[in-house]
């Protein structure tokens, strides 16, 4: 028998303080039936990892959201597809996101990061989310996508609405439907040849559709696949990085003394406070996880935020440690064939900013954060901070 629970992971309380509920689910079993949403919660690291690496048994092609309207709307996008079609889409989308392709932006990102940190040092205080974590991606992502001046003011609202809708169709998701419909309409406008800057990532997708290698009907969703994940998850990780490094000055001193720790430090941030709480999969067959069999046709919610704090896998999981040897094993960006296609871009941004901070900042002082109540993203809303040389 698979245990069941009346725990609701989508209440305001559970969203703002999720880790005790995650621990309860982990202690209850490899999979726990969430009565409120008629879905299995998979909360332990090894089970989440194994499921994410079995794309045949745990299918994304029928959607990854906890509501069927969005699953139907997104069907055929890179996120909501299975091989071999999924591999075809990722092959097209992934061209500008390979390590080699991203390296050409490294110098620009480092210059922009240095300029941003210089400006923040001149201020007595600033808001980490607006003035740091949002500002940097918004200074680079629109140009990479080839976006015209119009629409840029809506990017953050669109990204937030897109992720909010991946949870259950509750009040907060419904409240964002108008924003989401506006995004879909504008993506359709951008899918017309000539609307996006020639040579940009978005224009290359349009060219692929013109050449017949990509469906014209799916083109707006594919452009959205570039836009939505490139903002909210990165903003979440950058905000959490500043909070955690401000709260743990010993860890910041360790990074400044050894810059080689920066990639691992970013991984530890993503492990400690995973940007995405979790996404679901549909079981195509009966599938066993740690001795518990989940039936075919059911839906399972993979809780990345819980897996990254599982004491069965991590030593002292609630400790933030930039020297953690296995920090890169986190599932904060997903894993397997559906691991975040844009995570290389997020890492490039994060490394540039952490290096710029290490160059110029000896002290990071942070106040108390407030968090957004959001279905899918673990997101700080405001965080006052001061930087010292």
Question: On the 0-100 scale, what is the average pLDDT?
Answer: 95
Helix content: 40-55%
Oligomer: single chain
The structure class reads alpha+beta
Helix tally equals 19
The main β sheet shows up as: 6 strands, mixed
Indicate the radius of gyration in whole angstroms. Answer: 20 Å
Unreliably modeled segments = none
Which strand order do you get reading across the main beta sheet? Answer: 1-2-3-9-6-4
Note down, in words, how this protein is organized.
- The protein has 389 residues and is α+β, with helices and mostly antiparallel strands.
- 47% of the residues lie in helices and 11% in strands.
- It has helices spanning 12-16, 19-28, 45-52, 68-74, 85-93, 99-103, 106-121, 128-133, 135-145, 155-164, 171-175, 177-190, 201-211, 219-227, 232-247, 249-257, 262-272, 304-307, 343-360, and strands spanning 4-5, 32-34, 39-42, 58-59, 126-127, 279-283, 287-289, 292-294, 299-302, 363-366, 370-371, 380-382, 384-388.
- A hairpin with a 4-residue loop joins strand 2 and strand 3.
- The chain is globular.
- The protein starts with a strand and ends with a strand.
- The mean pLDDT is 95.
Key phrases:
389 residues; alpha+beta; 19 helices; 13 strands; 47% helix; 11% strand; globular
Summarize this entry quickly.
The chain has 389 residues and is an alpha+beta fold. The protein is built from 19 helices and 13 strands. The protein has helices spanning 12-16, 19-28, 45-52, 68-74, 85-93, 99-103, 106-121, 128-133, 135-145, 155-164, 171-175, 177-190, 201-211, 219-227, 232-247, 249-257, 262-272, 304-307, 343-360; strands at 4-5, 32-34, 39-42, 58-59, 126-127, 279-283, 287-289, 292-294, 299-302, 363-366, 370-371, 380-382, 384-388.
């Amino acid at each position: 028998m698979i245990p069941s629970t009346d725990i609701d992971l989508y209440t305001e309380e559970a969203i703002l303080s999720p880790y005790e509920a995650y621990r309860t689910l982990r202690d209850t079993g490899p999979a726990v039936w969430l009565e409120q949403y008629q879905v299995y919660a998979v909360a332990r690291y090894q089970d989440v990892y194994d499921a994410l690496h079995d794309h045949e048994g745990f299918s994304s092609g029928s959607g990854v959201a906890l509501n069927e309207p969005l699953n139907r709307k997104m069907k055929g996008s890179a996120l909501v597809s299975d091989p071999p079609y999924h591999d075809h889409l990722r092959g097209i989308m992934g061209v500008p996101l390979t390590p080699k392709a991203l390296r050409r932006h490294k110098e620009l990102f480092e210059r922009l990061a240095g300029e941003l940190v210089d400006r923040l040092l001149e201020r007595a205080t600033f808001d980490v989310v607006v003035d740091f974590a949002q500002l940097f991606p918004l200074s680079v992502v629109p140009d990479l996508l080839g976006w015209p001046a119009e629409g840029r003011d809506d990017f953050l609202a669109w990204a937030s609405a897109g992720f909010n809708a991946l949870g259950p169709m509750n009040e907060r998701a419904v409240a964002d439907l108008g924003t989401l419909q506006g995004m879909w309409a504008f993506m359709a406008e951008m899918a017309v040849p000539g609307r996006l800057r020639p040579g940009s990532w978005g224009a290359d997708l349009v060219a692929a559709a013109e050449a017949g290698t990509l469906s014209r009907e799916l083109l707006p969703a594919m452009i959205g696949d570039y836009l939505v994940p490139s903002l909210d998850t990165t903003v979440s990780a950058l905000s959490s990085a500043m909070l955690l490094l401000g709260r743990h000055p010993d860890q910041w001193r360790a990074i400044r003394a050894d810059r080689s720790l920066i990639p691992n430090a970013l991984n530890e941030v993503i492990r400690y406070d995973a940007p995405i709480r979790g996404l679901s999969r549909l079981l195509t067959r009966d599938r066993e996880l740690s001795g518990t069999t989940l039936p075919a046709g059911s839906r399972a919610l993979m809780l990345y935020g819980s897996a990254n704090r599982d004491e069965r896998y991590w030593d002292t999981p609630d400790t933030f440690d930039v020297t953690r040897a296995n920090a890169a094993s986190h599932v904060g960006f997903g894993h397997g064939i559906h691991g975040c296609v844009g995570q290389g871009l997020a890492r490039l941004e994060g490394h540039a900013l952490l290096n710029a901070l290490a160059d110029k900042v000896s002290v990071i002082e942070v106040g108390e954060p407030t968090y957004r109540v959001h279905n899918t993203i673990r997101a700080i809303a405001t965080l006052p901070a001061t930087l010292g040389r």
